[in-house]
Structures are given as C-alpha cells and as structure tokens.
Design brief:
Helix content: 25-40%
Catalytic activity: 2 5-aminolevulinate = porphobilinogen + 2 H2O + H(+)
InterPro entries: 4pyrrol_syn_uPrphyn_synt_sf, 4pyrrol_synth_uPrphyn_synth, ALAD, ALAD_AS, Aldolase_TIM
Bound molecules: ligand PBG
GO molecular function: porphobilinogen synthase activity; uroporphyrinogen-III synthase activity; zinc ion binding
Number of strands: 24
Structural class: alpha/beta
Organism: Nakamurella leprariae
Oligomer: single chain
Keywords: Heme biosynthesis, Lyase, Porphyrin biosynthesis
Length: about 650
Amino acid sequence: MTDPAGRGRSGPGRPLAGWRVLVTRPADRATGLVALLEAAGATTEVVPLIGIEPPDDPAPLDRAAAQVQAGRFDWIGLTSVHAVAALVAALDRAGGRTVPATRIAVVGAGTAAAARAAGLRVDVMPDRGGSAAELAACWPAEPGRTVLLPRSDQAAPTLPDALRSKGFIVTEVLAYRTVGRPVPPRTVRALRTGRVGAVLLASPSAAQALAAAVVPGGGADELVVGTIGSPTRAAAEAAGLTVTFTAAAPSDAALVAGLCAAVRDLAPRPVRGSSVAGTTLEPAARRRPPALDQDSAGPPVIHPTARTRQEAEPMPYPTERPRRLRRTPAIRRLVAETRLHPRDLVLPMFVKESLTEPVPLQSMPGVLQHTRESLRRAAVEAVEAGIGGLMLFGIPTHRDAVGSAATDPDGILNVAMADLRAEVGAETVLMADLCLDEFTDHGHCGVLTASGAVDNDATLVRYQDMGLALSAAGADLVGTSGMMDGQVAAVRSALDGAGALDTGIFAYGAKYASAFYGPFREAVDSALQGDRRTYQQQPGNRREAAREVALDIAEGADLIMVKPAMSYLDVLADVARDPAVTVPVAAYQISGEYAMIEAAAANGWIDRDRAVMESLVSIKRAGAQIVLTYWAVSVARRLTAGEDLG
Ligand code: PBG
C-alpha cells in the first residue's frame, strides 16, 4: 500500500499510523487482514504461531467418512478450511468424495470456497458469515436429523449445542489439531523492545504460543493484545497475557476496528535510539502505576491516595489470605471440593408411541419426544458421551383408567426398554419410570376409587405388574416415583417372587408436589387435572423426608432419590449426611429447573453454560452422588473436554 508520493506506508492521520502489528496466522490466510491493517496505516509482520496437525488417531475420522458414504448423515457442518481439507482427505481414503444424500453447511465464504474447490456442494451459508452462532442461526431446524461436525481440538461447543437445541443429533469427530509453534527469537525481541506494538490472536493455540514466549521474562506489558473471540481471550488470559480488546464479531474487519479503537488514545512515539526511528514507532506508555507517576516529565506526582497511606499507621495486613488459593485456574482446580464426572449423570429420555419424527418440546429446548428409532440413536450418542445411565419415560397412544399400556409387554415403555437393552444394554445402566401417570386417562400416578381418590393399595398391585414388565423388558433399575405408601416393598416382593432378583429399585424417597414439574407435563402429554398433593410431599416439610427415606430403605430400596433438586438442597443434604442412609443418594434436576435456565439464557439474561454447570455442581455439593439431568450429554462432553467447574 505504498502511496503514489512514496512517503512510506504509515501516513499520518490514519488510525494505525505508527503501529507495527504482529499477525499470527499462516501467510496464506493472512492476506485479507494484512490489507485491512495496512489500509489503516499500520505496518505488519506475519509470523504464523499455529500449525495444523492430523489427529493422533485417524480412525474416528475415517469411520465417520465411511458413514458419510453409507448415507448415515443428513448434514455435514464445516467450520474451517482445515475441516474441509481433513474431511476430503478422509473421504478420499474411504473411497471417494461423492456424498449425494448429504447436505453441507459452511461457516463462511472462505470455507465455502475450499469446499467447492474440493468438489463439494454447499447448501447453507450465513449471509454474514464467520461465526458458529451465525451459522447455527441460519441452519434450518430439522429435529431428529443427523449432523456430522469434523472439528478441531480447540473448537468451542457453540455450534453443536445450538444444533442440538434445534433437535439435531450431532456427532462430533476430531478432524485436526491446532498446535502452537514457538515464536522466533527475533520476534520475541521485537515484542519485548516495543518494536512491535500490537499482536492479533486468532486461536487459543496462537495465544498460548505467544504467552510462552513473552510472559516468563516479562517486558512486554505494554503490548496491545487483540483476540478474535472469547475462547482465544480466555486462553490468552489463562496463559498470563493481558488482553486489551476482543473483536466485536469474528471477522478481520471487526478485529481491525477493535484495534483502531484500542489504540485511539495511545499516541505513537519514536523508538529512542532505534536505527529505524521515524518509520517504526512505539506506542506511548500505558497502564501507569497506580500512585506514583515517574514516567512523565518533572518530579514524581504524588496522588492524594498515596499521601494518606504514607501518613497513616502501618496497615494491619491480613495474615489469613484465602484468595491465595483462588489465584490461578490451576490452583482453583487443585483445591476444588466438588468434582463432577460424566458417570455421575443420568439422562431422562422420552419415547412416544406411533411418532414418525421426533418432536422437540417447546418448554424444554433441546429435549425431544423420541420415536423408537431416534431413541436408539440418541441413546448410543449418550453412551458415547460417557454418562452413567438412562432413565426412560414412555407416552402411549391409548390411555385408560388403570394405565393398561404400562403393563402390556407390547406397550411403548416396555418395547422401547427392550430396544435399548438390545442397542446399548451392556454399556450403560437402563432405568425406567415406574409410575402410572403417563398411562392413565386421568393423569394420576395411581388408580382411583369410585369417589375419585387415589387408591393406594389397588395401585400397589399395578406397580407390581409394571415392575415385572419392565424387568422382563430389560430394565436394570425401576424408578418408583408414584409416592404410594409401601410401593418399594410391594415391587420388591413381586420381583423376588418372579425370580427377578437382579432388578434393582431406584426409589424416589423424598418427592415433593412441585410446580417445577410443569414442563414435564408437556413432555408426557399429561392428562392431569388438579394436583398430586394427596401423595407427593408438601414443600415445607423437611423432617418428613427423613421418614419417607427411612421407609424406602427398610422396604428394600437400592438407591434413594430426592426430587426436585435445586429447591430442596437442604433435604438432599440431610439425606446424604444421614448415617442411616447407606445406599447411594441421587437427585433429579427436573423439567422446570431445566426450563428456567434455558429460558433465562435464551433471553440473554444469564450465561447458560456457566449456570448449567453451577446448578449441577451445587446439587453435587449438597450431597448427590448421582444427578438426573436433561443436560447430561452436553455436560458430559464439556467435562470430557476438560472444562473447569468454577
Ligand atoms: C412421575 C414423574 C414425574 C416426573 C418424573 N416422574 C411427574 C410428576 O411427579 O408429576 C417429573 C420429572 C420432571 O419434571 O422433569 N411419573
């Protein structure tokens, strides 16, 4: 961009005049950014700090490519040119690039160009391309359809999470790794001496590579550091860099605009003694020390706060400093009192008779009523994510007064349980809700007397039959959730009488009549009029929970559950601490707890991912060893990816 008069690159008046900017991408991907920077008056230095490497184990990608060719995926989502290259190479290894039945969505123009150059057709691309969020926004929802995402090891969960909440069944496969490259010594010197005043980081690996070069020795604290997105920012900060700004959108233009805004107040000045003074300039001093300003001309300025402090008595400094243990992510990890593991989590799932397509639930975004077929696929996905077990609920087409479909071996819950036993049986723990409310035409958890009251003892007989049917279908554990007196003993004796000695009872020990079951009513198309206050506990009763739990244990419960979870953490803590409770303790984070967080997050009022993790950590902290949650799969993936809990 040398101007016609030959006055050099950094014309005065332009926003980045006098700034030398380090661009950390591979040269073939840096041209657009370099042009924008130079148009704004900067000089640039391109030093790639990342390299792209294949995964350590290519087998999963190759398997995915073979599945693509077998037509197993409805969609492929491509979020970088590297993903295109890795996928195409795997398709070639697997026998060819023709993918007639599969549609392709790409994140932006660069990726689209790479895909087309490789002979792939592009079906969806955002108008304003660039970010996973924009891609997710323009991708039409097709619940139950399958998506393959060939990913980098650094990829954020934004896209898969968004697609799952649109009802897609998403398979992520590691396609390539982004690795940091050491910064050349010459560049390190340029950064330390201020010859390079700003650096733009476009990936977490580049941030780590830069930090490794400049943080240990110090001396680059005046460097202006810009990041393209928040994962890169987080990586930079975790590695000890001070990030000056993050681009408002994931594009080169936004990155340059962010840099212009960040340096607006920082007038450039010549490097003293530099051989290239006059063309290479250094930014003015920034981040002044808080009290004494010795950088400015004349005697040091003593600020009023400093004077007060000098004249006062010596400060009685605290000797106890708990903040020491919060200083770095690594220390916080080491001292974490509560840990969460994928195996702690159980996924409740809904299967509905005679559906032809899965149906997303309005009040529980991301949760589906499954067909038998989509249930199997989603169960495989859940098992692959490493969760501890599945809790199945069935929704029949036909309902009657006694809930006949619950005990019919061909009823939806029983056949779906048998499907799961065949599909994933040995690999996870299969549980089912043992309760009649999904099956009765009045929607109560038991059968009714002539006067319309819930008949405890007549219900126990139905529960016994239901326990036998579920056990025969292959359930490992039955979840007695109806809150009838004596239900655990009744079901245990029926199971034992039939020789089903290995079928266990997951007893809803303390279960409250809660308004937070609201969205569940949509999930099971509940027919209930009225409420369940004659059998479920009233919310204010804490000691009563101990009585309910003690009875269930005496009757033969193998595990004990408290439900709901978040409004009943005191009850959960009581049960978990009770020395008489020697069976595992679980809590059920129910439909309304899920819906509240999803709804607030959808409005932008809370950070969804943090709120989800905090809610689950709090349930574990209160004493649950096992947590039932509709987020089980996405949280398991985040935990496996090494995400911190705090
Ligand atoms: C009873 C049952 C219910 C839930 C689980 N088992 C509904 C109820 O007791 O009214 C609620 C689960 C949730 O809200 O997520 N079959």
